[in-house]
Write a structure and sequence with these properties.
Chain lengths: 230, 243
């Protein structure tokens, strides 16, 4: 079964796989998680703001994103972003957007919908007395959010946010549909060039598996450590 | 914007001239539904078995369940599809591998089985949570009545657990539908795939993706409405969801 398994193909491809592919994947994951969290928190605040129109807009956005497959969203933004860029900059033709920028925008916009639901749950899990006390102290709405509500919501939801980031890490492999060399894309390129699909895909699976396993184990440890004793 | 909108494109013939673009998209929708249903059956069957394994008193059974869930949860779906599609036929004995490669509709079966197994790990976690949420007395009462373990699960625990986890199962089913779009990478022309090929042939990017988006939203609405109906039909009296 593994008699003609060629480990050397993997060894020779290692620098390319990790320096190019994995760097792309991890940078994309980290930046998309941060951007998605920021935009997602904003969406959550819009939904909880009590302003009907703002809440409605944010709700529609979140529902729309969550009912579409990521692959379709990737295609949407890949074609849409150049036109949006053109509209922003007032250029005469759709601007050129690189592979990385395009996928980063896609994942921020897509993941924000999921992060916003997590942050909404986090904000709602905080007792009413906290913002009331903050107001009694004379803090403004934005101060209440920044110094009282959001830090606690963030802390309570940290394990869930990190788990969602692991999902995001796995989902970034879908930029494959745009032939972008992320980790899987790089593995697939080598696989096709050398005709070594079995080795490369098994190796890619092993790497994703190991990283996700270690990360989710870490999240579980963290969860046990930071859980607030009530 | 200098994009040329052309909403009539849907009624124009596709490159083969045999049918219209609208027909192609609807064929894609049908294939998405077929793949998702096939995958969902697999996800439910395997998910229930593994979910039950994880709640059994036997250490071995719960370890098997644990490894199953971790195995399918920690790899991207795309990688799993590639393993089933490209790697499995090479690892099998020559004759079996050849048979698998020549199978008609290989990408359909690969997608259905691959997405099904991927989702089964998630369903298993829901089933486990559902069984775990039942009061301990239920299982004990069943034992006191003289039911054996299999009967306890079949007649007491599972009927309750499934009703409790219906809402999360609805979202898992919606994920199954969405995840079938990943099969575009192994050449399955489901809804996203058809929209993508319509875009490549006609250059009407935004019309194609708008249509696909609307069809996905419609599919979502139908599923959510159907599940709400099911939830009401099987609600347990005495629970908050019941009458």
């Amino acid at each position: 079964m593994f008699s003609n398994f060629d480990f050397d193909v993997i060894r020779r491809a290692l620098p390319y796989l990790f320096y190019e592919g994995m760097t792309f994947t991890l940078t994309l994951t980290a930046l998309a998680a941060l951007g998605g969290l920021a935009f997602g928190t904003m969406l959550a605040l819009m939904r909880l703001s009590g302003l009907r129109l703002l809440g409605r807009i944010a709700g529609l956005y979140v529902d729309l994103m969550r009912s579409l497959p990521l692959v379709l969203v990737i295609f949407w933004f890949y074609f849409l972003v150049p036109y949006i860029g053109q509209w922003f900059t007032g250029a005469s033709r759709p601007i050129h957007v690189g592979a990385f920028a395009s996928s980063l925008i896609t994942f921020i916009m897509f993941e924000a919908a999921y992060f916003s639901e997590i942050m909404r749950a986090g904000i709602q899990s905080i007792s009413r007395g906290q913002p009331a006390a903050a107001q009694a102290l004379g803090l403004t709405y934005s101060q209440t959010m920044r110094y009282v509500v959001l830090p606690q919501a963030f802390r309570n939801m940290l394990p869930v946010l990190l788990t969602q980031t692991i999902v995001l890490f796995q989902d970034t492999s879908l930029v494959y549909v745009l032939s972008i060399p992320d980790f899987l894309g790089a593995a697939s390129k080598v696989a096709q060039r050398d005709g070594r699909l079995v080795e490369m895909y098994l190796f890619a699976a092993l790497v994703y598996f190991t990283i996700s396993c270690v990360a989710s184990f870490g999240v579980r440890r963290l969860q046990a450590r930071i859980a607030i004793v009530r | 914007m200098n994009y040329h909108w052309n909403w009539h494109i849907f009624f124009e013939p596709d490159p083969t001239g045999a049918t219209t673009y609208l027909d192609l998209l609807l064929q894609g929708l049908l294939l998405t539904i077929e793949t998702a249903l096939f995958a969902w059956v697999i996800a439910l069957v395997f998910g229930s078995i593994v979910g039950v394994l994880r709640t059994l008193p036997s250490k071995t059974a719960s370890w098997i369940g644990f490894f199953y869930v971790e195995f399918f949860r920690n790899m991207p779906l795309l990688v799993q599809l590639f393993l089933w599609f490209f790697v499995l036929p090479e690892l099998l004995p020559r004759a079996a591998g050849l048979w698998l490669k020549q199978l008609p509709h290989a990408s359909f079966y690969t997608a259905a089985i691959g997405v099904g197994l991927f989702m089964s790990a998630r369903v298993a976690e829901q089933v486990r949570a559902g069984i775990g949420s039942l009061p301990r007395g239920q299982g004990q009462a069943a034992t006191a009545l003289g039911l054996n373990t299999a009967q306890t699960y079949a007649y007491v625990l599972l009927p309750m657990a499934f009703r409790i986890i219906l809402p999360p199962l609805t979202s898992e089913f919606l994920s199954t539908i969405k995840n079938t779009s990943v099969a575009i990478t192994i050449g399955l022309l489901e809804l996203t795939g058809q929209a993508r090929s319509m875009q490549e042939f006609s250059f009407q990017v935004f019309e194609a993706f708008t249509a696909a988006t609307l069809l996905y939203l419609l599919l979502n609405l139908v599923v959510v409405a159907g599940m709400r109906f099911l939830e009401r039909a099987v609600a347990i009296p005495g629970y908050i969801s019941g009458k």
